[in-house]
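Field reference: sequence -> structure
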Amino acid sequence: MEIVLKGLTDMENLFSAAEGALPPDAGTAEPAGAVAVPAGSSGTRTTPTDRASQRRQWGLALAACYCSGASRHTVASAELARSEKVTAETATQTLRFCCEVGLFNGGRGKFTVTEAGWAIAQRWQEDPVHARLLLQEQFLRPHWSVPVARAALLAGCLPAEELGKRLLGDLPGKLRRGRYLVEWLEWALLVHRDQQGVVWPAPALNAQAGPMATALVVPAGAAQESSGQEPDDLMGMTNRKLDELDRLQPQRFRAFIDNLTQLVKSLPA
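Structure field:
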């Protein structure tokens, strides 16, 4: 992490190559052939619920993480549904999908947060970008959607709806499930999507799991001791600046994340 922080005070260097750049292929890729779909780590392929937006699903997952807490209390999806004012089916389907990503253990309406899920929830309160990078690591273990998305985007960009259809494949459910899965991949900083809904892969989609998010998690005060920066700095960017960049200049934010990914991949193991 010290290597990452040193020598990067001028953030414009990170954006010079990528700022203002368009997606790799502004057009739509030709339909690809059938993609072999691997099963998840549990032998299943679960898609997000179609009853709530991806952001709402994320909120439900965080609420369940905090209810389970460091003591790993069991959370009943019915209780989560009542507290969050959603249906029991919405809560259950959301947590079931999050189980496959590695954020929870359990089933049949009873769930407990995993070590990874609790770490992400804690990091979210302090630094949302770091939390999303930790979520990225969970998808890169890999979740079954990652190799499917990688293969689908190999020939070029795709509309989000088309990528969603390919991710959904032969699984049952409304097409919204596939679209929300694309949004989960975007939330995990694995793909980018422009205002027209065109999706292209982020460099992390082809990365191996593990080193990036781990390198970015610094104990409170460690960065300050080693570099003189505030503990919420990420390569010279504070949480507030990153949030503003994501909200006001999404293209520059994508460039920042892409360059960060490439930088960490270049570090010695």
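Note: Residues 1-22, 24-35, 209-232 have pLDDT under 50 and may be disordered.
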